[in-house]
Give the backbone structure.
Amino acid sequence: MDPLTKVPVKPTGAGEMFQLLRDGRPRTRSELAQVTGQARSTIAARIDHLLALGLVGPAGEATSTGGRPPATFAFQPSARIVLAIDLGATHARLAVTDLGSAVLAEHQEPITIAHGPGPVLERAAAVGRKLVDQAGRSMSDLVSVGIGLPGPVDHATGRPTNPPIMPGWDDTDVPGIVRGLLGVPVLVDNDVNVMALGEHRAEFPEVDHLLFVKVATGIGAGVISDGTMRRGAQGAAGDLGHIAVPGGRDLLCRCGNTGCLEALASGRAIATVLSEQGVEAASTSDVVALVRAGDLRASHAVREAGRDIGGVLAAAVSLLNPSVIVIGGNLAEAGEHLLAGIREVVYRRSLPLATQHLRIVASRTRGRAGVLGASAMAVEHVLSPEAIEGWVQ
C-alpha cells in the first residue's frame, strides 16, 4: 500500500511476487500475471528464479479451459531449515523447523542462564548442529536462527539490556556470537515476545488482539495488537512482572522496588511462601508437582497468585482490549487453579465492554510456544522480499 495515495502497490520483483505464494495455494503463471499486472515473460523469469532456489515447486496442473492444462506452482517450505532456540532461566528448548515452522527435530535440557553467554550459546550451537543432522538435513540448508532470551532485549541489535536474571549478558552481541558459530543470520528477542508470536501463529492466527502471559521464575507479557507484535519504544512493552499489585504485600522485588507482581505471584515467590509454611518447595516445578498431587496449601497459594496476576491484568485489559489472554510458562502447568484466580479478578475489575467477548485460556502449544515463535521470527527474516531478492541476485 502506497502510504501517500493509499493505492495497493503491485508486486514487481521476485521477492514481492513470492509473498503471493507463501500461503501455499497453487497458482498458474496466468493468475500471477493477472494479480501483478506484469507480462507473462516477466512472470516466467520470476518463477524460474524461485524454482532454482527451491522455494517454489511444481504443484500439478490447473483445470483446463481448452487446450493443454496450465502448470501450477506453490511454496515449498521444505526447501530450507531454520534453528529455533528458546532459552529460559533454567532450561533450553531447541528445534529445527522447515520454512513453514513445522518441527523436524527438537531437544530440551536443563541449563543455568547465569553461567554466561559463552558456555550457554556454544552449547546451543552444538545441540543445533546435532538437531540438523537428526532432521536428515545438512548445515548448508540452514538459513537463519531465532533466539528467545529471558530478559529485556534491544530488538534492533539483539543485545540483552540489563537482564536481571542473566549476569554477564548485558549488552552481549548475541547475534554476532551465534552467527560466528553457525554462519547464518540470527534474530533475537525477549522470550515472552517470542512465545506470544509462537502461540499466535500456531493457535490463534485469526485473532488480531492477543496477550500472552508467561508465569514462571519471572512474569511477563507479549502484546499483539492489530495482528502485530508491539515492543514499545525500547522493547520494554509487556513487563507485567514489575507493576505494583493493587493492595498487594510490600515485598522486596529483585528490581529494587517493593510490591511488584513478580515478588508476589511468580513460581519462585509461591515456593517461598510454601516453604515458610513448612512445605518443601524450592522452585516453580516443585509448586506444580504439589498442586498436581492435591496439596491444598499449594493449590490455595497458586489461586491467590492468580488473583494478584488478575489484578494487574485487569488494568491491561481495560487499556489494550485484547480478544484472548493466553497463560503460559511453567506455573500454568498447575492447571485451573491459576486460571480461576486470574479470571475471577479480571472479569470483576475490567470494564464490561472489554470483557464481553474476552477469553482467558491456557497455552495450547504444549511448551513449544518459544521455539515456534523463534522459528517464525527467523522465517520472516529470510523470506522477506528483500531477503529473497538478495538470494536471486
Remarks:
- The mean pLDDT is 91.
- The first helix runs from residue 14 to 21.
- The chain is about 40% helix and 20% strand.
- The radius of gyration is 23 Å.
